[in-house]
C-alpha cells in the first residue's frame, strides 16, 4: 500500500473503535463456528448413542442442545452483520473526504469524472465491507477445524474433503486471475463512456439546436457495447467456474457418504459418523464455495481499492510548507516555469513578477499563450515545473488550502455557481454572514441586480437556477471579493457584461486595490483598464514575456485585442 491510502487505512486500523469492532466480529465468528461444529458431533451421538440405547431422554437433551446451538449461530451471524455494517460506515466516513479531495486534485490536472468514480469506488468498498463477503472470509476459520475433526473420525474423510477444498480454492484463484483484467477494462470503459456522454448531454441546446443528438448517441453506442461485451466475457468465465465450484461441494459430501459406507461395511465407521462427516464436509466446503460465488463482490471491491490507491498515490496533497516570515507582502511570482501536459516546450518560461499590495497587474497576450495557466499557477492550483508563487511569503502550492482560501479572491474564466442560494454562493458556503455578503455584492456592483431577482439573495444560483451568464459573472465577482481577500485573481472578469457591468467590474477592482489587495487580472478589453493599472505582464508565444511599467497598459492591451 502506498501514499495516502495506506495512511487512511493505517489510521482506520489504529482507531480503537475499529479494532474493538473487528476483534468482536472475529470472536463472534469463532463462537458461531464452535456452535456449528458441535452440530455434527451431536448428530453422531443421536444416531449412535440414542438409537442403540433406545434412550429418549438423551434424545430430548440433545435436541434442546441442537436448537440452542443453531439459535446461537443465527444470532451471532445477525450480530456480526450489524458490527460489520458499523465498520463499513466508519471506513466510508474516513475515506470519502480524502477521496473527494484527491479527486479534485486530479480534476485540476484535466481528469474527467474523477469525483464520481472516487465516490463509486468508496461506495463499492462500503458495500463489500458491510456485506456478507468479509463474514464469509471469517467463516473460513471453520475449514481447518472441520478437517481436523474429519481426520479424527477417519483420515480418508479428511482426504476427500481436503482435496475438494484445494480444488475449489484453485478454481477461485484461476477465476480471479483470468477475470481481473476484464473487470477493470470493462469498468474503466464504462466510466469513461458515462463521463463523455454526460459531458455531451450537458450541451442540450447545441445538441437539439443543431440536430446532433442522434449522431452523438450513435457514436457512444459502439464504445458502450464494447465495454458491456468485456464485462460479459468476465461474467461467462465466472458462471463456468461457479458451476464447477457448487458441483465440487456436493461431490465432497457425496464422496464422504460413499467412503463412509465402505468404512461402515468393514466396521471401521458408525452410521452416525457418516452423517457427521457429511455435515462436516458441508461446513468445510461451504465458506470456500461462498467466496467463489461472491466473485463479483471480490472483483469489484479489489478494483475499487486499487483505483482509490492509485488516486491517492497519483494525487497526494502537496506537503504543507511554512510561510517565510521575511517574505514580502503581496504576490511574488519567482521564475515560474510551466509546460502543458503532453507539451514539448514551456508555455511559461521563468516568469518573474512582483505584485505589491494595493496594485493592479494586467496580464495580456494572444489566445492560448498561457494567461489562465499563469493565474492557476499563482493560486497554487497547478504544479509548476520550476519556481514558485508566494503570497506574503507563503508558497501557494504548498499551503493549507482551508487557510489560504479566505485570503484569495478568484474569478475563473468559466464562472460556475454551486447549488444553493445567491447568499450562500457569495458567502462561500461558510457561516451565515448577510452583512459581509451584501458588502461584497455592493462592491461588485451586483446588489441592485440581486435585488431584482425573484427571491433576492435567496434565489437559487446553481445550474438549474436560470441565472443569465452576466448575472452569474457578477455574483462570481462578489464571491471573489467576499471577505476582502489580500490577493484578487480575475480571469477576464468583464467578459460578456454590458457597458455598465464592465464599469462596475473596473470600479470593484479599483476599490479592492484601494483596500490593499494585490490584483492580477486578465483582460481583452484595452480601453476599460487604460490608465488604471500599475503594471502589465505581456505574454507572447514561445514562452516569451515582458513586464511593463504604467503608461504602456493601453499599448499592451490594444495589441492583444488586435
Ligand atoms: N490541462 C491541460 N492539458 C493540456 N494542455 C493544456 C491544459 N491546460 C492548458 N493547456 C494548454 O496550455 C496553453 C495555455 O492555455 P491557457 O488557457 O493558459 O491560455 P490563455 O492565454 O488563457 O488562452 P485564452 O486567452 O484563450 O483564454 C494552451 O495551448 C492550452 O491548450
Automatic annotation (TrEMBL):
Transmembrane segments: 21-47, 59-79, 157-175
Species of the source: Falsiroseomonas frigidaquae
PROSITE patterns attached to this UniProt entry: ABC_TM1F, ABC_TRANSPORTER_2
ABC transporter domain sequence ranges: 331-561
InterPro entries the UniProt entry points to: AAA+_ATPase, ABC1_TM_dom, ABC1_TM_sf, ABC_transporter-like_ATP-bd, P-loop_NTPase, Type_1_exporter
ABC transmembrane type-1 domain boundaries: 23-299
Keywords tagged on the record: ATP-binding, Membrane, Nucleotide-binding, Transmembrane, Transmembrane helix
Coarse class of the protein's main subcellular location: membrane
Coiled coil, from the record: none
Membrane topology, from the record: Multi-pass membrane protein
Cleaved signal peptide residues: none
Keyword Glycoprotein in annotation: no
Subcellular location(s) per record: Cell membrane
Protein name per the record: ATP-binding cassette domain-containing protein
GO molecular function, one term: ATP binding
Amino acid at each position: 500500500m502506498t501514499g495516502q491510502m495506506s495512511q487512511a487505512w493505517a489510521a482506520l486500523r489504529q482507531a480503537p473503535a475499529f479494532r474493538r469492532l473487528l476483534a468482536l466480529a472475529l470472536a463472534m465468528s469463532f463462537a458461531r463456528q464452535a456452535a456449528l461444529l458441535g452440530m455434527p458431533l451431536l448428530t453422531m451421538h443421536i444416531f449412535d448413542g440414542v438409537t442403540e440405547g433406545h434412550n429418549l431422554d438423551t434424545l430430548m437433551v440433545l435436541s434442546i442442545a441442537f436448537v440452542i446451538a443453531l439459535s446461537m449461530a443465527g444470532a451471532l451471524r445477525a450480530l456480526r452483520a450489524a458490527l460489520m455494517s458499523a465498520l463499513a460506515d466508519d471506513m466510508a466516513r474516513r475515506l470519502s473526504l480524502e477521496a473527494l479531495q484527491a479527486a479534485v486534485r486530479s480534476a485540476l490536472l484535466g481528469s474527467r469524472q474523477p469525483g464520481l468514480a472516487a465516490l463509486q469506488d468508496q461506495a463499492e468498498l462500503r458495500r463489500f465491507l458491510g456485506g456478507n463477503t468479509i463474514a464469509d472470509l471469517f467463516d473460513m476459520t471453520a475449514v481447518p477445524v472441520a478437517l481436523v475433526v474429519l481426520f479424527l473420525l477417519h483420515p480418508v474423510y479428511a482426504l476427500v474433503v481436503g482435496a475438494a477444498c484445494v480444488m475449489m480454492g484453485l478454481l477461485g484463484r484461476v477465476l480471479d486471475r483470468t477475470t481481473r483484467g476484464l473487470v477493470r477494462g470493462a469498468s474503466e470503459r464504462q466510466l469513461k463512456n458515462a463521463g463523455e456522454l454526460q459531458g455531451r448531454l450537458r450541451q442540450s441546446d447545441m445538441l437539439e439546436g443543431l440536430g446532433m443528438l442522434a449522431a452523438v448517441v450513435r457514436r457512444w453506442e459502439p464504445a458502450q457495447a464494447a465495454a458491456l461485451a468485456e464485462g460479459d466475457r468476465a461474467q461467462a468465465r465466472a458462471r463456468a467456474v461457479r458451476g464447477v465450484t457448487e458441483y465440487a461441494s456436493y461431490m465432497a459430501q457425496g464422496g464422504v457418504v460413499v467412503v463412509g459406507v465402505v468404512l461402515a461395511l468393514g466396521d471401521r465407521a458408525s452410521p452416525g459418523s457418516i452423517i457427521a462427516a457429511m455435515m462436516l464436509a458441508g461446513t468445510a466446503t461451504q465458506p470456500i464455495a461462498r467466496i467463489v460465488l461472491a466473485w463479483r463482490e471480490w472483483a469489484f471491491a479489489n478494483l475499487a481499492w486499487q483505483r482509490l490507491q492509485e488516486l491517492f498515490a497519483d494525487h497526494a496533497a502537496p506537503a504543507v510548507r511554512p510561510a517565510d516570515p521575511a517574505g514580502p507582502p503581496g504576490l511574488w511570482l519567482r521564475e515560474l516555469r510551466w509546460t502543458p501536459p503532453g507539451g514539448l516546450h514551456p508555455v511559461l518560461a521563468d516568469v518573474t513578477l512582483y505584485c505589491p499590495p494595493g496594485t493592479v497587474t494586467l496580464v495580456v497576450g494572444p489566445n492560448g499563450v498561457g494567461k489562465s495557466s499563469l493565474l492557476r499557477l499563482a493560486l497554487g492550483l497547478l504544479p509548476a515545473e520550476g519556481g514558485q508563487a508566494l503570497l506574503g511569503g507563503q508558497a501557494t502550492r504548498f499551503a493549507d488550502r482551508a487557510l489560504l482560501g479566505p485570503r484569495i479572491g478568484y474569478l475563473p474564466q468559466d464562472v460556475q455557481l454551486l447549488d444553493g442560494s445567491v447568499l450562500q454562493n457569495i458567502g462561500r458556503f461558510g457561516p451565515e454572514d448577510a452583512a459581509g455578503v451584501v458588502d461584497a455584492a455592493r462592491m461588485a456592483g451586483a446588489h441592485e441586480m440581486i435585488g431584482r431577482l425573484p427571491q433576492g439573495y435567496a434565489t437559487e444560483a446553481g445550474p438549474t437556477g436560470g441565472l443569465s451568464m452576466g448575472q452569474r459573472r457578477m455574483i462570481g465577482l462578489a464571491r471573489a471579493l467576499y471577505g476582502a481577500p489580500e490577493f484578487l485573481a480575475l480571469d477576464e472578469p468583464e467578459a460578456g457584461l454590458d457597458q455598465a457591468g464592465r464599469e462596475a467590474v473596473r470600479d470593484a477592482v479599483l476599490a479592492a486595490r484601494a483596500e490593499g489587495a494585490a490584483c492580477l487580472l486578465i483582460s481583452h478589453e484595452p480601453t476599460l483598464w487604460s490608465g488604471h493599472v500599475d503594471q502589465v505582464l505581456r505574454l507572447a508565444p514561445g514562452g516569451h514575456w515582458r513586464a511593463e511599467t504604467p503608461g504602456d497598459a493601453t499599448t499592451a492591451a490594444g495589441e492583444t485585442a488586435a
